[in-house]
Design a protein that fits this description.
Length: 193
Amino acid sequence: MPENKPGKLVVVTGPAGVGKSTILRSVLETTGAQFSISATTRPPRPGERNHRDYHFIDVPTFEGMRDNGELLEWAKVFDNYYGTPAGPICEAIDAGRSVILDIDLQGARQVHAKCPQGVFVLILPPDHQTLVARLTGRGTEDEQQLKIRLAKAQQEIEAAQASGLYNHQIVNDDLQRAVRELVEIVTQGAPQQ
Ligand code: ADP
Ligand code: 5GP
């Protein structure tokens, strides 16, 4: 019996407000890939649903998962914990389904160390002003959060580009084109979903 071809592991990183969630919504629908639902200690934003967008958990629960080795990677981002539950990823890949992770550079480094065969994609804004406009326009962060996220954005982009980790960079100027580029990356050489 030939073994199932494993699914693809695709790691997406980009600064807050660049459009990762927006792009991923279309890409997941088009490709049938599975979204890796992270655990986080940050509170849900309006419109976010528990166990769909994130597993929203408290700090002791997060620390328990981390200490029990249940997370493929974890990081503290903007003062909150974020981490990727390992179990669902292994199951999906073993079953031939591709999985997409939306995680920061700290997490991507950890995943790369464990799964160097993964595909790493950096999403970039066309320019800083566009990023400011998108994050402000989304209206989900207060003034203080906005400042912190925008101050980190350029630094994060430069660190990610310098890391040599990313196989692809996608500039999210035209949404449809950015979606097409990521669909191509996710489906190339992957088993049919
Ligand atoms: P992220 O998940 O990276 O933090 P979002 O997906 O929440 O970012 O996008 C931030 C805002 O930018 C949202 O209001 C979204 O509708 C908008 N947006 C995303 N991509 C584009 C695009 N290509 N053109 C214009 N607006 C966009
Ligand atoms: P947000 O709070 O805007 O949803 O996400 C903030 C940042 O945390 C983004 O850069 C996002 O990619 C990152 N992030 C989300 N989930 C995880 C995760 O499980 N692990 C890591 N390392 N980063 C994550």
